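Box S2. Input/output pair 1.
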Amino acid sequence: MEPTRSGKVRDVYDLGDRLLLVASDRISAFDWILEPAIPDKGRVLTQLSNFWFSRLPTPNHLLETDIERMDLPAGLNRVALAGRAVVVKKCEVVPFECVVRGYLVGSGWKDYLATGEVCGIAMPPGLSCAARLERPLFTPATKAETGHDQNVSFAAMASALGTEVAQELARRSIEIYEQGRDFAATRGIIIADTKLEWGWHDGQLILIDEVLTPDSSRFWPADQYRVGSNPPSYDKQFVRDYLETTSWDKNSPPPKLPTEIVQQTRLKYIEAAERLTGKPFAWR
């Protein structure tokens, strides 16, 4: 089978009234797909997302997570798909990333330094890097299969989708972030921010794609968190930080990742999944 669509990480296969979603081991940074891939990364993303989908009290796209119970065309390599494939509902995808920021870091911190705002939202003066925000911020962005998502105002999102829908997306996205943040805190992990995707199915907004993973969220070890500095992370920020130490200009093809960086990234993803789920990572 050829994928109907290939994103930065996931390949989508059309099964008629359903979709087969397969998470690859690809990793991207600064709008480039990097080489080599991170072994088992797709399985971590899939299994951690499945964990959250089962915990969060909001409708989602999952139909089947067990490869042996999937009604798939003959000849597919089930061993290769195991642990990284799910069958999901077909949805009309909402064309915005729903970003929730609980801490002042990343592009939000850069924006604050330059303007005193985060994505157009006025912030109190004198905040430090990595400061916990009094209330999480909802800062939508356009979706991009290639290239970088672009931050947009809530007003622009409301103009495109309608005020009522935009408000519902903001409210539900913040609720999911807070639920995930509070649970992760019991496992010694801070979720600094996250991005969520939603889709329409039978007239209802449901959660789709992935949720609260090291690719879609910023995970920090709570015992290493200090206001004023960017803590070490369990997510792909580790790879970004490595790339910043090289001479790469971010416009030409990126350098290959050293074996040590690949191995450490893999272990970080697995550790995050194991700490959050409380279970050993499953390779199948």
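Box S3. Input/output pair 2.
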Amino acid sequence: MSGRLVLVSTPIGNLGDLPPRAVESLRSCALICCEDTRHSGKLLSHAGVSGVRLAVANEHTEDARTDEVLGLLAGGHDVAVVTDAGTPGISDPGMRLVRAAVDAGYSVTAVPGPAALGMALVVSGFDTTRFVFEGFVPRSGRERGDRLAEVAAERRTVVLYEAPHRAARTVADLAAACGPDRRVALARELTKLYEEVWRGTLGEAVAHLAEVAPRGEYVMVLEGAPAATAATDEQIVHALRMALSGGADRRTAIATVMGATGASKRRVYDLALTIPR
């Protein structure tokens, strides 16, 4: 019999969220693939798990770990995959090992557990019947502008991740793309002692982040776009000015405003030409 690849969710903050079945799975496997052996070693010590080998499988080494994992599975051994926090494969390593195991015909299963996106979504106060997870938006360039334009036009609730040192910039860019009145929930330090969920408009969120020292990865839950209405020229010009003042180049600002307003490219382009460089 061949072994199984087991994705084991780990706490996103509070160690009390590690379920008994996760501990059992970690204790019974032959290898635990993790992002950081020191971090995961502390978790195993807390859970009373010992004698199981740890191997690094992060964003840089996941592919290189594949042959070893497949060899263990072929020999009938179970292999676990964990990340520093949350569910493997969701904005974290794990997806490539899963793909390799599936392609090779091995069984893949999971021990469900914490995921920051799920917790932030359900406490946000926004519609949870339909939502989309965007993860981390691109850091710069046309790809970032295009993604923000898609987010701005999305009718479903949108969940994003962002690093603390980029949170203020991303919220400002979202305000430029979506307008300052779109509502957002900013969650950080979830399940920890200083858990915080801030709720307000994007315009208010810009001011809020300007006054605090962001710590901990943010989960941003954005209210879905309202039903499309015909934007006036004044509204389009205002949105363009907001995008440009937020640091977007003219091309990116045009794409962002097109997505937010539904206006045609020619109309937005012509109005952009009226704004002095």
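Caption for Box S3: Strands lie at 4-8, 31-34, 53-56, 79-81, 107-111, 131-136, 157-162, 183-188, 196-201, 218-222. The longest helix spans residues 141-153.
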